[in-house]
Amino acid sequence: QVKMVESGGGLVKPGGSLRLSCVVSGITFSDHYMNWIRQAPGKGLEWVSHIGAVGSMIKYADSVKGRFIISRDNSKNSLYLQMNSLRADDTAVYYCAAAEYGSGSLDYWGQGTMVTVSS
Amino acid sequence: SYVLTQPPSVSVAPGEAATISCGGNNIGTKSVHWYQQKPGQAPVLVISYDSDRPSGIPERFSGSNSGNTATLTLSRVEAGDEADYYCQVWDSGGDHPGVFGGGTKLTVL
Predict the structure, then answer these.
(1) Which residue of B has its CA nearest to A60?
(2) What is the per-residue pLDDT across A2-56, written as a single tens digit (0 to 9) for each?
């Protein structure tokens, strides 16, 4: 059974930082591309970033480029998202999702962690 | 950047068929993936690579992709199918390759 558990969300002031984590079990983590997808309250899904199986092939959405950093530790089956210079429009549920290929389907999703940016 | 266009809402009576479109420039040349999201839950993959059904997804779910439109079809719709549906592609030529459609709310009357 695949399990993906995000953590690290919370309330942060504009300009602040947060680090999200996603711990994965039930799949061979090091064989999968990993993604962060977010969903603002009442809105649709927005792809944020992905990282290749060995930590290369990193891409970001324009909305977070230069502020967010994605990383992974295959020895810990863990994915991370360092979020800096947070803005109100970063408020969203953040999901981690796994794909077998870089251009493949997002086969497995976590339950999400809520990030609220507000003063 | 690549844009996917979905109708905001589709309504259908139980037992009827529902079709949800996803428009994009030459989308027929890309692989389209579809996700179902029920309120308060994470998305679930229901169709991958245009028309493949993952294990556990009912045969009532099917997909197609040609030209400028991909389509998700739910035959014999049930009340439990009421959800938001999102199409997704990878725009490999772009700097931000992950693209989702705006989502379609399926209402079962």
Answers:
(1) B96
(2) 999 999 999 999 999 999 999 999 999 999 999 999 999 999 999 999 999 998 8
Q: Give the number of residues written for chain B.
A: 109
Residue A47 and residue B44: Cβ atoms within 8 Å? no
B95: chain A residues, CB-CB within 8 Å: 59, 62
Cα radius of gyration (chain B): 13
What number is the average pLDDT over the span B72-79? 96
In angstroms, the CA B57 to CA B51 distance is 12
In chain B, residues with a C-beta closer than 8 Å to the C-beta of A45 are 35, 37, 43, 86, 88, 100, 103
Inter-residue contact A77 to A64 (CB < 8 Å): no
Spatial CB neighbours of A75, under 8 Å, sequence gap ≥ 6: none
Phi/psi of residue A73, nearest 5 degrees: -130, 100
Q: What is the pLDDT of residues A52-71, one digit of tens each?
A: 999 888 999 999 999 999 99
Name every chain B residue with its beta carbon within 8 A of the beta carbon of A62.
1, 95-96
Gap between the Cα atoms of B38 and A112, Å rounded: 14
Specify the pLDDT at position A114: 98
